[in-house]
Amino acid sequence: MITDGTRRQFLGGIATASALAALPSGLGAADGGEGYWQTVRELFSFQEDRVPMNAANLCPTPESVANTVTDLTRSIDTDCSFQNRERFVQDRETARALVAGQINAEGDEVALVRNTSEANNIINNGIDLGPGDEVVIWDQNHPTNHVAWEVRALRRGFTVRSVTVPPHPSGPDDLIGPFRQAITQKTRVLALTHASNVSGILLPVRELSAIARRSGIHVHVDGAQTWGALDLDLKELGCDSYAASAHKWFCGPKEVGLLYVRRERIGDIWPSIVAPGWGSTAETELQGARKFESMGQRDDAALSALGDTAKFHHSIGPARVEARVRDLASLLKRSIADIGARLVTPVGDQLSAGVCIMEVASERRQLLFDAMYHDAGIAGSTSGGFRLCPHIYNTGEHVERAVRGIEKHRSLWA
Ligand SMILES: Cc1ncc(COP(=O)(O)O)c(C=O)c1O
Asked: What whole-number distance in Å separates Cα of residue 349 and Cα of residue 77?
């Protein structure tokens, strides 16, 4: 149950009627109260009895972005001539520039790949490593940033050292210490996850990057759970490469992802797929990170719609998106704790972001997950416990409904 105090704190800024009237065309100007977010929710086409709360896995796109993908796909099918497809070259560059601007990267440092899995694999396949070299990973990394390193290690003879952090860290130092201990003079790569999909823990990537980069270690970050959720500044974060998927928190088209590689590191990383666009070394230098996205015919409609999604984020403002994600996540976590359930995810902005997971015994997770979907109309996930990831298309009522549903099915977790 959500307490009155919690609800008052959350619903503190209900938008006025006049602000609401201005919203659809002027999202940036309105006051950001609950009425504002109701208007944002209405830009998405999901039904109220099938509410998505699993942004860590897949998000809906705003209806306008979905329409762009459909319209452009239809246009290609109606006329697939080079003449009709000429616009996509420019659309892709526009999307790249918009996305790069939002994360404080240069356009040449951003490759538009297919997803985080691919971006992680470009890095773990593309860095030259051999016997005597060590790669330090977090044991909570996704398989594409974990098992993939182990597979490459078998082939190339380097060593992978896996780091475990305390399950209930009391502050960032608890997370920094284990990595600091694992780094040796042989460490060449530190492969992290910004926010874990199985615990919700947010790693202090800025501090870890600073430690590693001082020793010339390449820092790769899987940002699947932070791009589109947090107001990112990759230069400030200080990593060498960063991977993410547009179809998660960014609410973008499906099967579009990004791989950021810091300019100085691009030349040292081999592409996984060599297709037209890769070119000679000199050309590659000119293309920057584009060399990682040359993989033959792409889904041009989806790549174009990425630009529309970036404009959508811009219209709300990445800082406001982050604040909303954090507000909903902390409302959810406090309310789950209030009804007596135990959280896997730490509370507090320094230690977590949008991913919220509660403890549920593995044999009962599927039952709760199904009950929440069929009974409460909330689509969650069983990753790491029972996982809910509210996002900007969710309202306070959705979160309240989720908590009521969890409370109703107490027998499945208490
Ligand atoms: C941390 C993390 N990395 C990578 C992925 C893979 O994302 P995708 O399937 O979009 O490649 C996921 C998916 O949930 C994830 O949570």
From this structure: 47
Q: How far is the CA of 3 from the centre of ligand 1 (A)?
A: 34
The pocket around ligand 1, CB under 6 angstroms, is made up of: 56-57, 115-117, 142, 144, 193, 197, 222, 224-225, 245
Q: pLDDT by residue (tens digit) across 165-200?
A: 999 999 999 999 999 999 999 999 999 999 999 999
Q: What is the pLDDT of residues 111-139, one digit of tens each?
A: 999 999 999 999 999 999 999 999 999 99
Query: Which domains occur in the chain, in start order?
Result: 4-42+317-412 (3.90.1150.10), 69-313 (3.40.640.10)
Nearest atom of ligand 1 to the alpha carbon of 195: 1
pLDDT reported for residue 295: 86
Mutate to test the pocket of ligand 1, among 120, 197, 254 (most ligand atoms within 8 A of CB): 197
Instruction: Annotate 290-355 with DSSP letters as a single string.
Output: GGGS--SS--HHHHHHHHHHHHHHHHH-HHHHHHHHHHHHHHHHHHHHHTTPPBSSPPSTTTB-S-
pTM for the full model? 0.93
For residue 295, the tally of other CB atoms under 10 A from its CB is: 17
